[in-house]
Specification:
CATH class: Alpha Beta
Keywords: Metal-binding, Transferase, Ubl conjugation pathway, Zinc, Zinc-finger
EC number: 2.3.2.27
CATH architecture: 2-Layer Sandwich
Number of strands: 5
Distance between the termini: 66 Å
Number of domains: 1
Shape: globular
Radius of gyration: 19 Å
Largest sheet: 3 strands, antiparallel
Structural class: mainly alpha
Bound molecules: zinc ion
GO cellular component, one term: cytoplasm
CATH topology: Herpes Virus-1
Strand content: 5-15%
Strand order of the largest sheet: 1-4-5
Pfam family, one: zf-RING_2
Helix content: 40-55%
Order of helices and strands: HHHEEEEEHH
CATH superfamily: Zinc/RING finger domain, C3HC4 (zinc finger)
Domain RING-type: 78-119
Length: 156
């Protein structure tokens, strides 16, 4: 009996948030995914079937936090399940700053290594993939970085 009451309350609450962050995130993710696909199709190497899962250690190293109530503030939306993060739930924060339910992002990272929203790539256990990624990111950072490149980190 009391349980039903709770779920109704939750539904009402999530109503308040419709039309904002979820749509935006969805859009951005779709766009990024498209770019990613294009880039991968273009680069064409062998028959690698997409990204490997994130390294177990990388998943374990994610910052865990408890979702706290924040009335009147922007609620965090988990981009995996598209649901708001409810007080008392356990969330995980990726190094890129995006937050998800622990129960959503951990299985996600078990099949691929990238943030669902911004495609930030976590470390993997796949040495070959890591090599490729290093090459790719160094090409990317030529155009993207310049602002805050670490001063002395690139000596050989
Ligand atoms: Zn979720
Ligand atoms: Zn992210």
């Amino acid at each position: 009996m009391g349980i039903e009451d709770n779920s109704i309350e939750f539904r009402m609450e999530s109503d308040r948030y419709t039309g904002n962050p979820a749509d935006y995130i969805d859009d951005a993710a779709g766009y990024e995914a498209l770019l990613q696909n294009l880039a991968e199709g273009d680069g064409g190497g062998g028959g690698r079937r997409g990204a490997p899962p994130a390294a177990k250690s990388a998943i374990e190293a994610l910052e865990t936090f408890q979702v706290t109530s924040s009335e009147g503030e922007t609620i965090m939306v988990c981009a995996v399940c598209k649901d708001g993060m409810v007080m008392g739930e356990t969330g995980k924060k990726l190094p890129c700053g995006h937050c998800y339910h622990g129960d959503c992002i951990v299985p996600w990272l078990g099949t691929r290594n990238s943030c669902p929203v911004c495609r930030f790539q976590l470390q993997t256990d796949d040495a070959e993939y890591e090599e490729e990624r290093k090459k790719r990111t160094s090409t990317l950072s030529d155009s993207a970085t310049a602002s805050s490149s670490s001063s002395s980190a690139s000596r050989h």
